[in-house]
Hints:
The complex is a heterodimer of chains A (225) and B (255).
Chain A: H1 5-37, H2 40-71, H3 75-108, H4 117-140, H5 143-173, H6 178-210
Helix pairs in contact in A: 1-2, 1-3, 1-4, 2-3, 3-6, 4-5, 4-6, 5-6
Chain B: E1 6-17, E2 20-31, E3 35-39, H1 46-52, E4 63-71, E5 74-75, H2 83-89, E6 90-93, H3 104-115, H4 121-134, H5 138-141, H6 154-166, E7 172-176, H7 184-197, E8 202-206, H8 210-216, E9 219-224, E10 227-233, H9 234-239, H10 244-250
Parallel strand pairs in B: 3-8, 3-9, 6-7, 7-8
Antiparallel strand pairs in B: 1-2, 1-4, 4-5, 9-10
Helix pairs in contact in B: 3-4, 3-6, 4-6, 6-7
Amino acid sequence: MPETHFEQELEKLEVTIMRMFTLTERSLNKAIIAMGERDDDRAQEVIEEDEQLNNLEVEVDDITLHILALWQPVAKDLRFITGCSRIATNLERIGDQATNICERVLMLNQKPKLDLMNSVEALAEKALTMFRNVIGAFSDQDSEAAMQVCRTDSDVDDMNIRIMRKLIDFMITENVIVERAVHCIIIANALERVGDLSTNIGEDVVFISRGINVKHCDNYDRFSF
Amino acid sequence: MNDAQVKMATRELNVYYGEHRALQDVSIPFYAHQVTALIGPSGCGKSTYIRCLNRMNDLVPNSRIEGEVYLDREEIYSTSMDAVELRRRVGMVFQKPNPFPKSVYENVAYAPRIHGLARKGTEMDQLVETSLRKAGLWEEVGDRLSLPATSLSGGQQQRLCIARALAVEPEVLLMDEPASALDPIATQKIEDLIYELKSRLTIIIVTHNMQQASRVSDRTAFFYMGEVVEVDDTQTLFTRPSKKQTEEYITGRFG
């Protein structure tokens, strides 16, 4: 049990952020399954559930503003509160990317599956793993695990570029697949954004636990904890 | 690192009251034209410490001081240092406003007259006005200089005490919880004044109010049980303190 009123407020914030993490992970996972299994119903569910994440982001805004105004926190408490505020924004955006993926899945499902979807599914697994790892890093306040997530972002970027090149080559030779290829590119880009947003969260975890700002860092290997 | 000039410093300062060691090996540099806040729980030694900086503890029976206190590299406890001149150079403002039972004018003129800083009446008038302006009080009391100082509000009385300290043109101003007895508006005026005064002075302030320390100071020292736990730039100390004890105190986990 938290000992003080202030600690109760902090716990409320943490619980709300963890709910956001849980819902975001569920949406992203569902979107990826919907893509692999060409499941319209599941894709539709993700689109409809996005509003829950939007509402939770507003709730986090309210809680953080309330704590800042009433308690004037400092040190790790201040870092936790401002970090959670940024994390909530990133989670809401990951939810938006899950919705974007599902909107394209619904369009792709109206036509035969492209062979190149296997590469997109591999990218999806990588992005989902990054996101799951950053959830663990946040809940354990593990800055090294968070940095490891940041370091893997370049792999996701590279996979996305390779997929785009393949799809462009394909579109040049087979113009019948252009519409589906465009949907695939948008999905791959959405997954690459999930990697970026997970990296942002990883950077916030480092800030919360260590007080070090590693944003926009060229080389995450410079930091080890 | 801090490139500013060190105006005052203590080196391994120890203070004893009888057998009790109230301060243990306290070493802090105070940089010119900066505000340094001293924070810590009640009884941690911060008021004892600030009183060493202009030898106010000389007046406490059975007290003993070891270590060194420097003002511009001159040891203030050396026999060559005149305590009266030291207290002119290192002024002090206390927790509760303590104006003399005299007029507003006489409160400010008293010390300059003793120190012979203004001879003619017009010089003294000018000095009183300048001091009251520096303390942000002239606009409020300039036309009421003959009124008893005790008729002013608490916040005005405290600024009068600051004007009184400024009248002898100190180089360092010590402030022992200067706003703790004041309402939020008067407190804000004192804090604004501290911000303005640091361009002329080096300021050392004891405060129980953590937000005040973070608002007004450039550097902060955290005291606990007679020792300095941590001294750092205020922003660093309040966002990522290096010591767990500091973190626990400023976040309200103990103290």
